[in-house]
Amino acid sequence: MKNVTINAEEITDWESFHDVFQKHLDFPGYYGRNMNAWIDCMGDEAISGDFLHLRIEGMKELKERCPEIHEAIAECSAFVNYRLTENGEDPVLALSYHT
Fold first, then answer.
1. Which residues of the chain have pLDDT under 50?
2. By CB count within 10 A, which of 8, 26, 63, 86 is most buried?
3. 21 Cβ partners below 8 Å, 6+ apart?
4. Does CATH number 3.30.370.10 belong to domain 2-98?
5. Of the candidates 9, 1, 6, the residue with the CA atom closest to the CA atom of residue 21
6. Which pLDDT belongs to residue 71?
7. Quick check: 56 and 95 in contact, CB under 8 A?
8. Domain extent listing, the chain
9. 33 to 6, 16, 86: CA distances (angstroms)
10. Given the DSSP bridges, would you call strands 52-57 and 2-7 parallel, antiparallel or unpaired?
């Protein structure tokens, strides 16, 4: 299992959101910096066979500061797992939120 901690205090807008995830998860240089590309990169964990535990600290403040981003993290993470299970694969992504 791969454990990654994201400090949501670093996220203030969409640009910083993509910066933080690209840095902490080693997204490729050609990462498209949109949520479709984010879903693809997160789903690539399935190819590596790694289960990803994503610990996000400061989610309460992120929800207040950037509600769209907060919602997108949950919805798009669920979609990563949904897409995998629809293809007969196991889910690869677990989120834990911390204040």
1. none
2. 8
3. 6, 27, 38, 41
4. yes
5. 6
6. 97
7. yes
8. 2-98
9. 17, 10, 25
10. parallel
Instruction: List helix spans (H) across 1-99.
Output: 14-25, 35-48, 59-65, 67-86
CB 53: neighbour CB atoms within 10 A? 14
In whole angstroms, give the CA distance from residue 49 to residue 61: 32
pLDDT at 46: 56
What's residue 6's pLDDT?
97
Encoding tokens for residue 88? 């007969």
Instruction: Find residue 2's DSSP bridge partners.
Output: 52
CB atoms within 10 A of CB 91: 16
Query: Which pair of tokens denotes residue 21?
Result: 């995830």
The pLDDT of residue 8 is 97
